[in-house]
Amino acid sequence: MSRWLRCGLLAIFLVFLLSGSVVAHEIILNVSQDTVVGEEATIEITLGHFPEDYDFEHDFFQRLTDGQLFVIDPDGDETELQFNRETDRYTATFTPLQEGLHWVVANIPRGVLDRTPDDGLQLRFYDAKTPLFVGEQYQGEFSQTMLPVEMVGARLPLLQVNEEFVAQLHYDGEPASRETVLLVSPTEVAIEVTTDEDGSWSFTPIESGRWMIKTTLMDTTRQGEYQGEEYDRTRYNSALYLDVLEAGAMPVNTASDTINVYIIIALIVVLGGGAWLFISARRKA
Fold first, then answer.
1. Does the predicted TM-score (pTM) go above 0.85?
2. 75 plus 52 within the same structural domain
3. List of residues 6+ apart from 231 with CB closer than 8 A
């Protein structure tokens, strides 16, 4: 075999290997940041390959409703949402009662036991979360939720390109050290980082748009029985979705802007009407 052919085959293998980590099935959450108090927001949840390659024919997609979908408000109160099936996704609706940073959280068991390369048997869980900014409150913190695997500790504005983002990976409330965090850009550029001794990690986004931050964590001490079979480990596939703005851009809440326009129009009408009444009264006098 020629040297050039060997190099070509090696390159193809590496591309396949790297792309395989990017296109693994994940729970995908999409929410609109155009949300104001008292107005219904739509949340989409589906299964597939980030960013938009949905696999609605997969058997796991059919069982997404076996899991739970929550919104957690700024006070920590949870609201469980109901799934509505569409062709390639499920939707749910939520009406916020206050401004501020909310969290949309999905926690879904895989529903099957898998053999591992060392002939073990693992139970898999998939979860995902994404922030929901209500009103014009674009600041908040990563807070602990009911998920075993969490990104915590970071101050969370809407991120901007070339702006460093720092967070901490927790498992069961404790820092998870020496774990891999995979970051996938809107154009599927993959970046891997490793958490340090206290679970901290950082990255600087290079593209605007929606990013996926993924961790896969295995716990060989969490064992049990599932549907009559014993498993010797539990695996968590966790995804966090964050929106990144262009450098220097300001977030725009068009729903809020629309309300402001209506208020301005109403004020103009009221002031104009008052002026007309005042002028009419002066003329009669």
1. no
2. yes
3. 113, 120, 121, 122, 123, 223, 224, 225
